[in-house]
């Protein structure tokens, strides 16, 4: 009878403590009296009662995990952005053959002297258009030698004219050439283009007509 009362008392206290106290409940025996007893221990119980975290505790854990993951991705994004901004982009390329360009035709510079940080260099050599892969500030410098009487060409960013060059050449002499140049600094986004557009222009080849693009910031 005493044993049943002790069992009932144990079950009652266990249910109460499960709801109110963050302890493990253990049932232990008394060797001297032979009676059962109730003992609360924080650790190393013979029979442990598994506690279930309350919903708000679980919610806090989820929030912490989300915050930590967000911070990690933010750090990765910042690192990638910094690396992209500090990436070197350099290009110097020249005209390969003597050629007369018609109005609004893009001048091509396929003879590349220096190139770094550009993966689409072949496209530039074919089309004459530099496509930005790393956003930032770029310096574009162009000089062109020609024997055309009225020399005109434009430096372009996408469809926008960012600089114009005019030259008057005296063609009475066979080897009467003039060189006109322009240098500008512009801000580019990814996929923006830089190129040179002619206007009925004869262009001298090799080191007499070249283009240079440098990322400066």
From TrEMBL:
Membrane-spanning residues: 58-84
Source organism (scientific name): Mytilus coruscus
UniProt-recorded name of the protein: C1q domain-containing protein
Matches recorded under InterPro entries: C1q_dom (IPR001073), Tumour_necrosis_fac-like_dom (IPR008983)
Domain annotation C1q: ranges: 124-200
A Pfam family it matches: C1q
Lineage, top ranks: Eukaryota, Metazoa, Spiralia, Lophotrochozoa, Mollusca
SUPFAM superfamilies: TNF-like
Swiss-Prot/TrEMBL keywords: Membrane, Transmembrane, Transmembrane helix
